[in-house]
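Propose amino acids for all 224 sites.
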C-alpha cells in the first residue's frame, strides 16, 4: 500500500494571546491508499479540526501536510482549491443537499458549477453513482422527498463525483437511525473495497468505528 496522506508535527491553535486555544499539539498521522479508518476522540478533541485541515479548508498553525507527495502547507489558495476539487470528497453530518433540486442534480451540480457547465459525461457519472448507492429509482426525486439515509447516500454519491482518492466524512451517520447508519456504513465499506478510495470517518459511535479496519484516536491534541 502506498502513502496517501502524511501529517507531521501538526499544530493548530485557534485565536491568539489570552484567548489562544491549542487544539492539535504536534499530531502525526499517515493514511495509506485504500484505507477505511475511523477517527475517534472525545467531544472537542479536534476531530473536525483535523478533518478540515486534511481537507485543505484550513491551514495548520504549523507542521507539515503532504498528500499524493505534494506539500500542501506551502500551496496557495488557488492551488489548494484545485487540489481539493480533484482529489478530496466530503460527507458531513447534515447532508447539505439543495432542497429544490433532484437527487441527480444534487450529485452533479457541484462538479458542473466548478467546471462551468453540465456535461453529458457528468450526468452519466451521476446516474452511475446513484445506481451504485442504491438510488437508481430515486434520481428524479427532489431532495425533500428522500429519507435521511437516502439523502446521506446522495451526499456520498456527490462526494465521489470526481473520483477522489480521499473522502473525509464528519459524523456521516450522526443524524441517522441505527438501521440507516448501518446501511450507510456498509455502502462506504463497499465503495472502499471496490474503488480503493480511502475514507476517514469521524464518529462517536464505537459500533460504526468497529466496521472500519483501523481506529485512530485523537486524545489531548495528538494521535494515541
Ligand atoms: N473557529 C474556532 N475558533 C476557536 N475555537 C475553535 C474553533 N473551532 C473549534 N474550536 C475549538 O477547538 C476544539 C476542537 O473542536 P473540534 O470541533 O475540532 O472538536 P471535535 O473533536 O470535532 O468535537 P465534536 O466531537 O464535539 O464534534 C474545541 O475546544 C472548540 O471549541
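Proposal:
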Amino acid at each position: 500500500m502506498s502513502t496517501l496522506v502524511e501529517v507531521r508535527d501538526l499544530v493548530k491553535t485557534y485565536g491568539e494571546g489570552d484567548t489562544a486555544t491549542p487544539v492539535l499539539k504536534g499530531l502525526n498521522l499517515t493514511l495509506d491508499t485504500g484505507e477505511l479508518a475511523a477517527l475517534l476522540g472525545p467531544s472537542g478533541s479536534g476531530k473536525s479540526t483535523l478533518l478540515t485541515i486534511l481537507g485543505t479548508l484550513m491551514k495548520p498553525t504549523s507542521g507539515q501536510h503532504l498528500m499524493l507527495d505534494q506539500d500542501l502547507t506551502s500551496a496557495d489558495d488557488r492551488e489548494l482549491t484545485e487540489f481539493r476539487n480533484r482529489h478530496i470528497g466530503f460527507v458531513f453530518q447534515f447532508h447539505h443537499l439543495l432542497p429544490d433540486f433532484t437527487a441527480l442534480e444534487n450529485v452533479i451540480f457541484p462538479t458542473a458549477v466548478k467546471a462551468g457547465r453540465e456535461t453529458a459525461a457528468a450526468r452519466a457519472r451521476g446516474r452511475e453513482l446513484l445506481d451504485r448507492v442504491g438510488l437508481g429509482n430515486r434520481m428524479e426525486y427532489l431532495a425533500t422527498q428522500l429519507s435521511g439515509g437516502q439523502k446521506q447516500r446522495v451526499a456520498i454519491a456527490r462526494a465521489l463525483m470526481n473520483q477522489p482518492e480521499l473522502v473525509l466524512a464528519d459524523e456521516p451517520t450522526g443524524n441517522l437511525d441505527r438501521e440507516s447508519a448501518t446501511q450507510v456504513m456498509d455502502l462506504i465499506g463497499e465503495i472502499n473495497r471496490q474503488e480503493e478510495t480511502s475514507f476517514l470517518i469521524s464518529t462517536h459511535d464505537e459500533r460504526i468505528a468497529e466496521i472500519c479496519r483501523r481506529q485512530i484516536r485523537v486524545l489531548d491534541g495528538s494521535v494515541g
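Residues 14-15, 21, 23, 41, 43-49 surround adenosine-5'-triphosphate (CB under 6 Å). The chain has one domain: 3-223.
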